[in-house]
Structure formats: C-alpha cells, structure tokens
Specification:
single chain; mainly beta; 2 helices; 28 strands
Length: 346
C-alpha cells in the first residue's frame, strides 16, 4: 500500500497548529488578522514579529488601525484568574515575580510581589504566568544551599510560614529563598526526595505513551554515532530529531494523552532520510499502563520505505521499573516481520 506522504502532512500540521495556538493575535479594522508575537506596545504603535515566506520579520502597526489585539499570557490569566491565588510570573529576561495579581488589562498586569511590593508589568515582557496550587507540596532551595520540603501554610510580609515533615513549622524570610519548585509527595522516600523519572517518555529506543511536559527535553547519545534530542512543545506533543552518523537523519513527532489515572495512549512516527534521500521509518500507535516510575508499553506500527508500507506490523513490548533513586530496570523487545526468499545460484 502507498504512503503518498501522509506522515509529512501530519508532522507539518501538528507543528503549525501547535505554533498558532500559542501566538498573540492582532485584528485590524479591515478584518485582517495576524497570528504573531507582540514584543512592544506603545500608546500609538504595536511592534510585533511574524512568519512570512518562511522567514521571521519584525514590523509595526498603528494602534488606530487595530480593532483588537490579545496577548497569549493575558488570555491564559483571564481563564484562571483568582483574586486569592498567588502567581509565579516569569519574565522574558529570566527573572521571576511571585505574589497576588491585583488587576490586569489587555496590555499589562499589576502584581503585588512578595519582596518588591506592587509592580506594573507590560504583558509583552512576560514569558509565562502560572497559578500556584495552595495545597502543593514544595521543595524550597535556600541561598545557603539547604533544601526544605513541605507546604506553605501562610504568607506574611517578606516571610513564608512553611510546614515541613521533619522540622515542624518554620518562618522563612523570602530574601533567603533561591528557588521554589512544586514536587510530587509520592517521590519522597524515607525522608529523601527522588527526582521524577527523567526517562519516562521512552525506553532504550522505543517511545512510551507518557509525554514530556511542556518545556522539558533531553539529549541522548548511544555509542557516539547515535545522537538525538526531544522537546515537549506542549504537554501532549513532543518533537524530536537526530542523526545516525554517518548514514541518516530523522525526526520523531509524537502525540500522547493520559486517558485514565494509569493509562496513556499515543501515536507518532519515526521519519528518517537515508543518504540517497529515500524516506524510511515507522508509523506507530502505543498504549502504556502504569506510572512514570513503573510502567509497561505495547506498541504496533508499520515500517515504510519511500512510498510503500510493509504489509505486516512491527510489534514492541517494553517495560521499566525504578528500584532506587538512580537505577531503573528496563526491557525492550521488538517483533519484526520478515519474508522468506528463495535464493537461486544462477
């Protein structure tokens, strides 16, 4: 059966829709709409960048010509705004503000930072806004190198009241805090924090149905010649790629979803380009049962060579279990169909 390049269409469609959904929007008085990235807003002008003919171009437009504009981070804030909640606001320059959002409009937010007081921030300078979970189990890294695990039970001026499992309730000056990270309490083992399994989205080579989170990524090297990277574009879509020196290059898009508390499903392709420009690879579906620490995955897919699929599927069965903080046991098994050929010496 013929491929007719559907996998290429799938890859570019996913990339396009993922990018478009995360962009800012400018709508003009004449009805024309731009999906773009706004990087500066002045009283009379909006400056933005957008893709045109495969290139990123910077331009601007008068606000008198604009009927409406929206910035993705403001739209996200509208959807989950809570006057009682605390937010983490990460700026484009890497700095972070933490506190209550007092108010916001289409182009700015006013936040009461825990250390700096009330600050007005231009929306186009914001990389992300995340609402803090009031019941979250947290890891607090202090400037002196100490690490505390527990929950925030009260916020005072310049002080966090923090309840730990082993030290009781502590008053921590916010100026002494280097970083606060939400963690899964189930990763606490005998009073020690185990970092989440960094290999949950794959086994030795084959993927699992568990996706990388947005912004997560990894680099893999096998025997020097095999090099690959993967990145979570969203919580449901991962894009990867790499090279097998010196014979091939490949990309590996994958979509996956959590269907039930311990059940994940996904689909994707390994799309490779051989030195003679032949397209080779596998289009697959996968199902995973378990957690990020202990799971098993059944996968099935059809290999293809240029424009033709193989008639019989490839089947994979893989599993992993974590036995210590730094050691997991992994098995990966491939059942590859083959055809019998009669060789005649003539």
């Amino acid at each position: 059966m013929k491929l007719n390049k559907p996998l290429l269409i799938f890859v570019f469609y996913i990339l396009y829709t993922t990018q478009a959904s995360s962009q800012d929007i400018i709508k003009l008085n004449n009805g024309k709409e731009y999906k773009c990235d706004i990087y500066e807003i002045k009283p009379d002008t909006i400056y933005f960048s957008l893709e045109f003919n495969g290139n990123i171009s910077k331009t601007h437009i008068l606000r008198s010509d604009v009927a409406f504009f929206s910035i993705k981070q403001i739209e996200k804030l509208k959807n989950d705004y809570d006057t009682a909640a605390y937010y983490s606001v990460i700026m484009n320059d890497g700095s972070t503000l933490k506190g209550k959002v007092i108010s916001f409009d289409e182009s700015s937010i006013l936040i009461s930072d825990n250390n700096l007081g009330a600050i007005n921030i231009k929306a186009e300078k914001i990389k992300s806004i995340e609402k803090e979970n009031p019941n979250a189990f947290l890891k607090i890294e202090l400037n002196d190198g100490n690490v505390l695990n527990g929950k925030i039970i009260e916020r005072k001026a310049n002080v966090l009241v923090f309840k730990t499992d082993n030290l009781g309730v502590l008053d921590i000056p916010t100026k002494n805090i280097k970083k606060i990270t939400e963690i899964d309490k189930t990763n606490m083992k005998n009073g020690e924090y185990w970092f989440p399994n960094p290999n949950s989205s794959r086994y030795f080579f084959s993927p699992s149905g568990i996706s990388l989170k947005k912004g997560e990524g990894y680099y893999q090297n096998i025997y020097i010649g095999y090099n690959s990277v993967s990145y979570g574009v969203t919580d449901y879509f991962t894009i990867g790629g790499g090279v097998i020196l010196p014979i091939a290059a490949f990309i590996t898009p994958k979509v996956s979803f959590k269907i039930a508390p311990k059940f994940y499903m996904g689909a994707g392709t390994l799309l490779g380009i051989a030195p003679d420009n032949t397209v080779i690879g596998i289009a697959y579906g996968i199902a995973t049962y378990g957690s990020i620490e202990h799971n098993i995955t059944l996968g099935s897919g059809f290999g293809f060579y240029d424009d033709t699929f193989q008639e019989k599927p490839i089947i994979t069965l893989a599993a992993m279990t974590r036995v210590s903080k730094r050691i997991s046991l992994v098995t990966e098994n491939w059942m590859v169909p083959y055809s019998d050929y009669e060789y005649v010496n003539g």
